[in-house]
Known about the structure:
Mean pLDDT: 83
Number of strands: 8
Low-confidence stretches: 6-10, 15-19, 72-81
Order of helices and strands: HHHEEEEEHEEEHHHHH
Distance between the termini: 91 Å
Strand order of the largest sheet: 1-4-5-6-8-7
Shape: elongated
Number of helices: 9
Number of domains: 2
Radius of gyration: 29 Å
Strand content: 5-15%
Amino acid sequence: MKDINQTEVLDEEEKTLVEQFEPRYFNPRNDVAFKKVFVNHANLTMSFLNSTLRLEGDRKIIKIEFLPTECLPITAESKKSILDVLCTDQKGHQYIIEVQNKYMLNYVQRVQHYASHLYAGQLGTADNYLKLKPVTLLSILNHAIFPDDVNYLSFHHNIEKETKISYLNDMSYAFIELPKFNKKLEDLKTTEDYWIFMMKEAVHLREAPEHAPEEIKQAYGILEKHKWTRLERLAYEQAKIGLMDDLEAIRTAKVEGEQIGLEKGKAEGKAEGKAEVAKELIIDGMSLEKICKITGLSLEIVQELSGNL
């Protein structure tokens, strides 16, 4: 039987092992964690937007106001959009920040729907179109959607084809494709580097990068597990389970689709084989009724095959 001191020593050893192997930080790509870092932390959101969108001079954001992230549909038939972070700056320009953890075939169309929805929603019934302010959507992706020759951080907007000048520039898009970001800790130099590194690697780290800017160290502090309440942890786990369920549903649908395709291919191959046998028997002069009996094909199909020979 253990004495009290021995039990205390073992408990401390177990705690040390847990600390060694359990991640210190929650995953910032989790919906709950992402919002905890950025929503209501204006300094972090401004730093993230200014660095990743590379805003300088009079384009730099110096003040933001957070907006409700549930955008009501324009019509009853429209899809409701739930955004991760939505804010406006000192000029009234609006910014959407969204994290996308699962691959979607129609994602490019989806982000354009979001941006245009937000852009059009700025006007009331009697408002002048000149009141419309630019909208920028920044998407953080846990997968690649563009070809390899497109950099991990890419910018997209309308340009005139010949002059390459943008005249229709009220809606723009930026995409961070995390799998393409291969910088190591020793390669990090800019605030942009440190933010993207955090989004990709925080869950694997035991310490925040020593030379990271102060606002990014603040973000790591927010992600520390021991600072979260029980209810916050529960919400994080529910979001994590929800994502895992979605991914499993996608995998299951893919497997089922492949199985259906395989079975369909076998059936089509079998039918094609029957048709070939029927053609040979037609050429040999066998009666159509007897060919139907041998191959199992309907009389209509055999007649059609006969007419095509």
